[in-house]
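We were asked to recover a plausible sequence for a given structure. The inputs and outputs are reproduced exactly as logged, with field labels preserved.

PROBLEM: sequence recovery
POSITIONS: 400
GIVEN STRUCTURE:
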């Protein structure tokens, strides 16, 4: 065994076998309201599940945030931000939030709608004159994943696509050259599309006249109180950026660097932490960023052309079988920037994210006015405990 391998092994043993309970901590301030005993027990149950994820080596590190009604938010950290350096996760550390970026992108679009600078009915040929079928694809359809535009890795991108895509100038220029640029007619079905959210990020820049991340900072991050949220640029790394890992369970040292590391712009390119994400949802829900009417549009099922909600219009590729529904996960569809479903018969809004080295989850349960943020710095690091965590999430009591 070489010295480097021995060092990693010693760090892993010290962190995962006996230090977990000391690494996990809570940042308490003077409570606006005290969390009830029943809800405290539920928080502790989630805390134990996350500790087990770390001790079982399913993730290197983790951050957990929860706010119930007007009670003081609770933030907890677990494990390591950097395995090689032995750095514990801190409350200020920034995780890649992956597709949890999409509700933020959607909020920015709706802010432009509220300002009268954009309409949900605008067709994308207004911004990209040469986009195929652009005269029939609307902003609403991009937001709700009903445009028919496939993910770029499935669409057959042109050979001229730069390695930096989609973090390049005018990404629409390459998307509009995809060999298979449409899966179905706009609004015919619902099919999740990262490409659509790349186009939305570019539209934000065209309409606002400033860069996507500059608009977010001015119109979302600052009013919501999100000082630790920013676009990731590899060349501009921060000391608070948590390192991401992939998992190789068969190896003696299971955590390795992720194989693919791309920066998916407005579809998933932000870094944040649990505090900022709780602040985002609270500000969004309260009408501080956009009107409550627009928030209601975000969290209501979008419709396909026949008027059916998105959960009734899932696209199934020719020759494929529809995916089997998961028990207790019903009416899974999309609004404008949020996934929607009935979880154990309880309506929830949420978004999940997975990107090289990271796994993320933001969920809100209106019944109890509870918001939960889960951030892991290992690919699929939340998944082994997710179903149990979600079950507990539906059991929180309203403290209004």
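RECOVERED SEQUENCE:
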């Amino acid at each position: 065994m070489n010295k480097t391998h021995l060092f990693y092994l010693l760090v892993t043993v010290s962190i995962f076998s006996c230090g977990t309970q000391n690494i996990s901590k809570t940042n308490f301030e003077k409570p606006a309201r005290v969390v009830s005993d029943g809800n405290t027990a539920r928080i502790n149950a989630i805390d134990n599940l996350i500790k087990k994820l770390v001790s079982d080596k399913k993730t290197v590190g983790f951050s957990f945030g929860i706010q119930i009604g007007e009670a003081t938010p609770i933030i907890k950290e677990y494990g390591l931000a950097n395995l090689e350096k032995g750095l514990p996760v801190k409350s200020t550390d920034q995780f890649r939030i992956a597709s949890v970026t999409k509700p933020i992108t959607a909020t920015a679009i709706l802010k432009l709608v509220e300002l009268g600078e954009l309409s949900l009915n605008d067709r994308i040929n207004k911004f990209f004159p040469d986009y195929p079928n652009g005269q029939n694809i609307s902003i609403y359809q991009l937001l709700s994943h009903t445009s028919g535009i496939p993910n770029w890795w499935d669409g057959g991108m042109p050979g001229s696509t730069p390695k930096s895509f989609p973090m390049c100038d005018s990404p629409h220029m390459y998307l509009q050259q995809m060999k298979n640029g449409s899966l179905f007619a706009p609004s015919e079905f619902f099919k999740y599309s990262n490409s659509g959210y790349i186009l939305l990020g570019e539209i934000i820049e065209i309409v606002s006249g400033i860069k996507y991340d500059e608009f977010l900072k001015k119109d979302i991050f600052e009013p919501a109180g999100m000082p630790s949220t920013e676009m990731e640029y590899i060349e501009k790394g921060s000391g608070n950026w948590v390192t991401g890992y992939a998992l190789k369970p068969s190896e003696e040292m299971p955590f390795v660097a992720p194989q693919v590391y791309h920066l998916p712009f407005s579809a998933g390119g932000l870094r944040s932490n649990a505090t900022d994400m709780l602040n985002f949802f609270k500000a969004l829900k309260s009408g501080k960023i956009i009107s409550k009417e627009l928030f209601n549009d975000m969290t209501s099922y979008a419709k396909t052309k026949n008027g059916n909600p998105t959960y009734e219009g899932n696209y199934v590729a020719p020759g494929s079988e529809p995916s089997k529904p998961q028990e207790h996960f019903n009416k899974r569809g999309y609004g404008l920037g949020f996934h929607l479903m009935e979880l154990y018969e309880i309506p929830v809004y949420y978004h999940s994210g997975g990107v090289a080295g990271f796994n993320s989850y933001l969920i809100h349960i209106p019944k109890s006015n509870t918001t939960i943020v889960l951030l892991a710095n290992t690919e699929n690091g939340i998944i082994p405990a997710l179903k149990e965590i979600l079950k507990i999430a539906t059991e929180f009591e309203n403290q209004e």
